[in-house]
Amino acid sequence: MNTNVNFAGIKMKNPVTVSAGTFGYGREYSNLFDLNKLGGIITEGTSLKPKSGNKPPRICEIPSGVLSNVGLQNPGIEYFIENEYPFLRKFDTAIIVNVCGSSINDFIEVCKILDKIDIDGIELNLACTDNENDGKLFGRSYESVRDITSKVRKVISKPLIIKLTPNVADITLSAKGAKDGGADGISLINTILGMKIDIEKRKPILGANMGGLSGPAIRPIAVRMVYQVAKEVDIPILGMGGITNAEDAIEFMLAGANAIAIGSSNFANPYTSIETISGIEKYMEKHNIENITEIVGKVTM
Amino acid sequence: MPEVVKAKLLKKEYLKDDIVKFSVEAIGIVKTAKPGNFIEIKVSETTYPFLRRPISIYNIKKDEGILEFIVQIKGEGTKLLCEKKNGDIIDIIGPLGFGTFKYEKYQNIAIIGGGIGVFPLYELAKEAKEAGKNINIYLGFRNKDYVVLEKEFKNVSNKLVVTTDDGSYGENGFAIKFLEEDLKSKKVDCIYACGPLPMLRAIKKLSIKENIPCQVSLEQRMGCGIGACLGCSVKKANSSKENPQYFQVCKGGPVFFAKDVEF
Questions:
Q1: Neighbouring-strand partners of residue B234
Q2: Structural domain of residue B16, as residue ranges?
Q3: Proportion of chain B in helix, strand, coil states, percent, rounded to 5
Q4: What integer pLDDT is reported at residue A148 of this predicted model?
Q5: Tell me: the pLDDT tens digits for B66-77?
Q6: How high is the pLDDT of residue B23?
Q7: What does residue B198 show for φ and ψ, rounded to 5 degrees?
Q8: Whether A203 contacts chain B with CB within 8 A
Q9: CB contact under 8 A, A266 and B52
Q10: What's the rounded Cα separation, in Å, for the pair B173 and B222?
Q11: Which one of B64, B96, B128 terminates a domain?
């Protein structure tokens, strides 16, 4: 039985990773289980300068999910290189650094630094707002995705993954923008914009008013987007959005994901990722699957 | 370090219609738990409610390996939790929080709690009492129907004042009034507080006025409880409005020196 996958040029021992913003830089979870078991770790979104994040509250519960807006709190790339990278690199798992920024130049500067160190890939968070374009999302259109992807592509040689925002009319256009810009893979999906109101105070619950919806509540939307993109665009996909176990992970892979990421389920059950890995092995055994890659995109209509 | 424990529910006791005390077997947690620590409890087997519920620790029975916590039934999550029966297994992560109550270097301490905020103060009082500290406790409740744990706190204090906002039980008025009165004649080396935000703000103000260190246990909407999601934050004192800096309540706290945080 072979669970190895090659996602966007990144070799992983299994298709299970953990998504940016739900796993910090791995330290907290390393106290709870052996991180070497993971296919990969995608770090906290990391920016050129430290970011202190949004005022509280930053998170609240919604039916079968989470609404949150942390505001990209992170210690900055310099701190990461000095303190978090040496810790993370000790583990035998693919390390993918998620990058955020508020201008294309921010992304370029961070990626140049990351391209020189021993990590396995770089993921760009295009749900960030572009301060040079009235705060519109970098991932808002085919052109904007292609533009930032191609500019970052020029300065790095490591595998480049574009994390697309689902808050667009046609996700396949965004995926085409990533492909045409020279990305090696895409992450689908980031959180869906949402809002919750405290009816007694008549105010939004979140300090930032609106936030991103994640968790099982958004899973069907994520599966649909993975399916649509896999059908239309020839680019490796890291599927995510409400995965809580192996069954959910396999659903994403059947829809067309080459690998998957566990997100907010890490909060509810910190062992979700390793339980998903063993669950995938059981599924392979039960269905006589030799290579996990066999099931990718194998949903039939 | 926190661990995930499948804790057996040994005893469930209703202190009020909506306030339930749990005694669970959790040897792994009680071994290292300190006063002020909290736990994250998985309340549902399904994805609703999705997130764990952060609950403060009430009593750590180290010798027996028993952990006690008290829950007020407020929403769907706490309702489900309180439906658990003796013998059921509860999925708990703990102990959580690196900011715990520090009492070692203070001899005369004042503990003040409001409403359900009194729960995390019991373990502090118990340990400080065992360490031979002089302890004054002030507990405020809305009215006589809300008064809980009077006997328990009496046993771990040198003096206990119970107040109700409407005077229907104990002393009449907010608990802070009686602390403030005592500060005129009594030496207090540190104040410890947990309760509603307006109460905590008033206590912080008083502690600054009297120049007495003050430790507060804070609450915030939480995600993971272990410091990974960065969901629960509280503003660091002395950080500017333009460039505010934050502590994570779950990791830096939940107990902070009041002077270090703005709430």
A1: B247
A2: 3-96
A3: 25, 35, 40
A4: 98
A5: 999 999 999 999
A6: 98
A7: -60, -35
A8: no
A9: no
A10: 32
A11: B96
Identify the bridge partners of residue A147 per DSSP, sorted by sequence position.
Answer: none
The CATH number given to whatever domain includes residue B72 is 2.40.30.10
Instruction: List active site positions of A.
Output: 128
Tell me whether residues B228 and A267 touch, CB distance under 8 A. Answer: yes
Q: Are residues B85 and B141 in the same domain?
A: no
* B229-255 tens-digit pLDDT: 999 999 999 899 889 999 999 999 999
The number of beta carbons lying within 10 Å of the beta carbon of residue B72 is: 16
Tens digit of pLDDT for each residue in A33-58? 999 999 999 999 999 999 999 999 99
ipTM of this model? 0.93
The tokens 């994040």 sit on which residue? A53
Give yes or no for residue B1 having a pLDDT over 90: no
How many domains does chain B fold into? 2
Please report whether residue B126 resides in a domain.
yes
Whether B103 is covered by a domain: the verdict is: no
CB-based contact A268 B1, cutoff 8 Å: no
pTM over the 0.90 mark:
yes
Q: Which of A102, A70, A96, A26 lies closest to A240 in space, CA to CA? A: A96
User: A59: nearest CA in chain B?
Assistant: B231
Query: Are residues B222 and A59, on separate chains, in Cβ contact within 8 Å?
Result: yes
pLDDT in tens, B24-60: 999 999 999 999 999 999 999 999 999 999 999 999 9
Do residues B171 and B149 both lie within one domain? yes
User: What residues of chain A, 60 to 89, have a C-beta less than 8 Å from chain B?
Assistant: 60-66, 68, 70, 73
Question: Are residue B215 and residue B255 in the same domain, yes or no?
Answer: yes
Mean pLDDT of A267-291: 97
Bond before B49 cis per omega within 30 degrees: yes
Instruction: List the domains of chain A with CATH numbers.
Output: 5-54+69-192+213-295 (3.20.20.70)
Residues B257 and B168 grouped into a single domain: yes
Q: Is A270 on the interface with B (CB under 8 A)?
A: yes
Cβ contact B52–A268 (<8 Å)? yes
Q: Report the distance separating Cα B46 and Cα A150, nearest Å.
A: 43
Task: Examine the pLDDT at B223 and tell me if it is beyond 90.
Answer: yes
- Per CB-CB distance under 8 Å, the chain B contacts of A22 are 224, 228-229
